[in-house]
Design goal:
The complex is a heterodimer of chains A (346) and B (375). Chain A has 346 residues and is α+β, with helices and mostly antiparallel strands. Chain A has helices spanning 24-39, 78-91, 112-129, 184-192, 210-220, 234-246, 261-270, 289-300, and strands at residues 50-54, 57-66, 72-73, 76-77, 95-107, 132-141, 149-159, 175-178, 224-228, 249-253, 284-287, 309-315, 321-325, 331-333. The model of chain A has no long low-confidence stretch (mean pLDDT 92). The longest helix of chain B is centred in the middle third of the chain and has 16 residues, at 224-239. Classes of the chains: A alpha+beta (346), B alpha/beta (375).
């Protein structure tokens, strides 16, 4: 008996930056090439971490690579991101990070002090997040073959008690909870590259969201249906993935989505949508209506969760769609990011 | 945020919407063309059709500079960069626009030195920082962006930067409006005039539209309330039988335009006898070329330009959509072969193109029954 050959649907002739931008092209690559060849039939909807059972114990496992440029930016650096990114991927998958391993890809010629600063930043972030870094690997490539340094982390985590998350459990009437203002990280990086001659008082939001999620779980775990950290591709992309996976509509009230003035201003100038901009220290959760207020209060009770907000709800129609509604009655469809967000001028 | 939030405030928008319903005669159908792609984008982004009565139809005009650029010009610009090994700099708007052998971003993925700039002055800076390289700025846009290209050329000459040139694709808005009005079967009652272009050219150049064609025109801003107020002003004119140019966007647009910007343009540019517009064909005196006094910085004079002409795929009805004769959804390729990810026509590439705006913000709303406020 022969098994059917996996169906490769990815037809793009070459890899472009858009395939790594977290939006539609990334999804096409993962679902069209990686999933059929690597995951076979046994795959659950693609989330931020995978769930495995070892000797009867449930574990979450995930990995993430960091190639940010510049290495240091207002509010953080690549080392801190590398720890928090993986801790957060586990947290929004309902798991508390236990252990991380780390791989460094270093460009020959990288000053030791730059590396040391990032290793120190990792140690600090790991301590803050309560996770151990237990091993790693180092590769060095020729000068010019990498952009200073890349870091990959992989982590395993234990389930946070009481959380059972899946897109399929989402129901019409559920509320959309967002932990805080969006767009800070992406706009900070865009400006820190110094290519745009724009300046703003703004910092990356990089942080572990685990304390916020633990607080929410303690108050409202049975009502929390689904979570995601809206990194590359922004909130719009995460919510479109949800809408597609659950076959329902995510209706946002645009005025309620918290965005700092500096981020709004930069987005207006550059023709970008804050909903498409990357975050590194936020999460979005779908919560059953009766648990929405307790979840909101629990997150808001923490100082780093004070800007948490309920920003919309799940509806039946139109299926598979994210809608933006406004107080005056205007609505629009909010699509996934296509390609990289590029500044628009004319 | 100042100058933004007050123009999106629900109460005021409800009042404007009610006023529009009061002014629009129930038995009449109004066809208003918004000339500028920025307006098209704003109309969809803010869901403004939801607050307009059904007898007010907004027709999307040709004012999206990326959309009207023929594919051959993109091929020409990229081929200069390829053949001569120069750095290709352009606005983000251009980066995903397909040429015959791919977009600037695809060329970048294959190794071409492609830079996204926010201003032509940034392209000049790249040239100054890298004297061993030649930097070509691929200039696009109406009178909105043309002055910044002109200033950059003036600066390049005064600083003596020789490793910099401009491939000029600047076009002018008035001939495009004329072409729309001249095209057969075109029924437009009035125009929402372009806001950004008018910050440069002012309001006077539109007077012939009002006078000779008897069409009201209101120059408008880009916030929801700006556009609704412009519609109110147009309805008032139509109801009283007027045809005038009015300036809704007076907080930004001076009636006489920006003299300094116009002077810089006059110093550097002259009109081309004719220029090809995508979907609209050749329009005489509709585009700018660099004067011979700046020939050293004119990529068309400095490099070999293949002069590629590419016809659009026959099935794509970009021209009809661009002139407002067809709605995006009525094109055979819309949402099928042609999507923002794999655009065939340029209207699907730029977020100001009516097809992309419609695809991104509108088309899946069709099965939407109520647009109430949740939570």
């Amino acid at each position: 008996m022969s098994t059917a050959a996996p169906r490769i649907r990815f037809r793009d002739a070459q890899i472009e930056m858009a395939h790594g931008a977290g939006g539609k092209a990334s999804r096409r690559l993962v679902e069209g090439l990686f999933a059929p060849l690597l995951f076979g039939e046994r795959r659950e909807p693609l989330g931020d971490a995978a769930h495995v059972t070892l000797n009867g114990s449930k574990l979450a496992i995930t990995t993430d690579s960091f190639v940010v440029k510049p290495l240091c930016f207002p509010g953080g650096s690549i080392g801190e991101l590398a720890v928090n990114g993986t801790v957060n991927d586990l947290a929004v998958s309902g798991a508390q990070a236990e252990s991380l391993v780390v791989t460094f890809v270093l460009e020959a010629g990288l000053p030791t002090e730059v590396l040391e600063a990032e290793v120190r930043a990792m140690a600090h972030a790991a301590k803050e997040a309560g996770v151990s870094i237990v091993g790693g690997d180092t590769k060095v490539v020729e000068h010019g073959k990498a952009d200073r340094m890349y870091i990959t982390t992989a982590g395993i985590g234990r389930p946070i008690p009481g959380l059972a998350l899946s897109a399929q459990s989402v129901r019409p009437g559920d509320k959309v909870l967002l932990s805080g203002p969006i767009g800070d990280h992406g706009i900070t990086i865009l400006l820190a590259r110094g290519e745009l001659d724009l300046e703003a008082e703004i910092c990356s939001d990089t942080r572990s969201v685990l304390p916020l999620i633990e607080a929410m779980a303690a108050a409202a775990a049975p009502g929390v249906r689904w979570m995601r950290d809206p990194t590359r591709g922004g909130l719009a992309t995460s919510l479109n993935e949800l809408a597609r996976d659950c076959g329902l509509c995510v209706a946002l009230i645009e005025e309620r989505v918290p965005v700092r003035d500096a981020v709004r201003g930069a987005c207006e100038l550059l023709g970008l949508d804050p909903l498409h901009i990357a975050n590194e220290g936020q999460f979005v959760a779908i919560v059953a209506p009766e648990f929405a207020e307790p979840a909101l209060s629990a997150v808001r009770a923490l100082p780093e969760g004070s800007e948490c907000a309920l920003i919309g709800e799940i509806r039946e129609q139109p299926p598979g769609t994210v809608l933006g509604t406004r107080g005056y009655g205007g609505t629009r469809v909010i699509d996934m990011l296509v390609g990289d967000p590029l500044p628009r001028i004319c | 945020m100042k100058f933004v939030d007050e123009f999106r405030e629900a109460g005021v928008i409800a009042k404007a919407s009610a006023e529009i319903r009061r002014l629009a005669g129930p038995h009449r159908h109004y066809r208003f063309m918004e000339v500028c792609g920025g307006h098209t984008h704003a109309i969809y982004r803010f869901g403004l059709k939801d607050v307009l009565p059904p007898n007010i139809e907004l027709i999307h005009g040709p004012g999206c500079p990326v959309c009207v650029l023929p594919m051959g010009r993109i091929d020409d610009g990229l081929s200069i960069a390829q053949d001569s090994g120069v750095t290709f700099a352009a606005f983000g708007d251009m980066m995903r626009v397909p040429g015959t052998r791919g977009s600037p971003l695809e060329h970048k993925a294959r190794g071409m030195d492609v830079r996204i700039v926010y201003s032509p002055l940034d392209a000049l800076k790249i040239a100054q920082k890298n004297p061993e390289k030649h930097v070509l700025f691929f200039a696009i846009g109406f009178e909105t962006t043309a002055p910044s290209t002109a200033l950059t050329l003036i600066r390049a000459r005064s600083l003596g930067v020789r490793n910099f040139s401009v491939f000029c694709n600047h076009v002018t808005i008035i001939p495009a409006i004329r072409a729309i009005l001249d095209s057969p079967g075109m029924r437009i009652d009035a125009f929402i005039g372009p806001g950004h272009v008018s910050t440069v050219i002012g309001c006077r150049p539109y007077e012939w539209v009002a006078k000779n064609e008897r069409k009201p025109i209101v120059v408008a801003g880009f916030e929801p309330l700006d556009i609704l107020q412009a519609i109110i002003m147009l309805l008032r004119q139509l109801n009283s039988g007027d045809a005038r140019v009015e300036n809704q966007y007076a907080r930004v647009v001076p009636w006489e335009g920006n003299r300094a910007a116009l002077k810089a343009m006059a110093e550097v540019f002259e009109l081309r006898p004719f220029f090809e517009w995508r979907g609209m064909g050749f329009i005489s005196q509709s585009a700018l070329k660099i004067k011979s006094s700046y020939a050293e910085w004119d990529a068309e004079q400095r490099f070999h330009v293949p002069g590629v002409r590419v016809t659009d795929p026959k099935a794509a009805q970009c021209g009809e959509v661009l002139k407002g004769a067809l709605k995006p959804l009525q094109c055979k390729l819309f949402g099928k072969e042609c999507t923002p990810e794999h655009p065939i026509g340029a209207l699907m590439v730029s977020s100001e193109g009516s097809c992309a705006a419609y695809y991104n913000y509108e088309h899946r709303k069709s099965d939407l029954t109520t647009a109430g406020v949740p939570v």
